[in-house]
Amino acid sequence: MPRPSRRTGSTVMATAVALVLASAIALGLSGCTTPAPSPTGTHTSPLRLAIVGDSLSAGKTRSIANGLDASTWALWATDDNLVYAGGWAVAGATTTAMAEGVTRIDDTDIVVILAGTNNVSHGVPWDQAAGDLSRIVETTDARHTVVSAIPPFDQHATEARTYNLQLSELAASRGWDFIDPWVEQRDGDFWEAGRSIDGAHPVDDGYRLLGLAIREDLNTLMESWVG
Q1: What counts of helices (H) and strands (E) characterise the chain?
Q2: What percent of the chain clears pLDDT 70, i.e. is strictly above it?
């Protein structure tokens, strides 16, 4: 059998060395792979949800400090992706009362602020409301801030619509997310027939519908945060 030429032997040796080097590099890279970021960039699901609001968030207990019941939308908004982390909600509260009462909740991923119906009722100036909301956001210090439209207010329909328009514009200017979870319960600027007990608050089942709508909105937002 003829001996292989020096050129052939060199080629075989070079190929072997190249394969060894490639394997070493591949192993090194696989050991340094960085996991994909979670929706918040720092946390995996479930995310921690805090709420700030008035009776629309406190429900029949009139304060979430008294616990959650079936008329507290947060009970219906939580799922495998969201866990309730606390917050501040008291019946009759204006945004000013919220700003004065709310405290920081550690490690909060999302805060949902549903505030303003009592502002409309008491004629609180918009500039005051905007400052209050900024204070609430600063205090809660959540990774994501979501502000919700207020529901229809039959006795002050025009004022409620104006408030929501201003709220949407404020959210856009501050980098907050704005949602309107009342769409299914609205009829223009008013409540859909049979959906409100007094032109300002929903019937009992309306709180469930509100929570489910907010949950759907938040799940959609979480997908956009990942993107």
Answers
A1: 8, 7
A2: 80
pTM of the complete model: 0.81
In 34-193, alpha helices (H): 55-58, 73-77, 95-101, 117-122, 126-140, 157-174
Give SS3 for 164.
helix
Strand stretches in the chain, DSSP E? 47-53, 82-89, 110-114, 144-148, 177-179, 186-187, 190-191
Strand partners, 20: none
Cα–Cα distance measured from residue 129 to residue 163, given in angstroms and rounded to the nearest whole number: 10
Q: At what angle do helices 126-140 and 157-174 cross, to 10 degrees?
A: 50
Averaged pLDDT of the chain: 85
**DSSP symbol at 79:** B
Listing DSSP states for 24-38 in one string gives HHHHHHHHTPPPPP-
Whether omega before 46 lies within 30 degrees of 0, making that bond cis, reads yes
Q: Which two tokens stand for residue 43?
A: 């946390």
Other beta carbons within 10 angstroms of residue 133's beta carbon come to 24
Angle (CA) 42 48 50, round 5°: 130
3-state secondary structure at position 83: strand
What is the distance between the alpha carbons of residues 111 and 105, in angstroms, rounded to a whole number?
10
β-strand pairing of 110-114 with 177-179: unpaired
* Predicted local confidence at residue 45, as pLDDT: 72
Round to whole Å and give the CA distance between 89 and 95: 10
Give the single-character DSSP code of 152: -
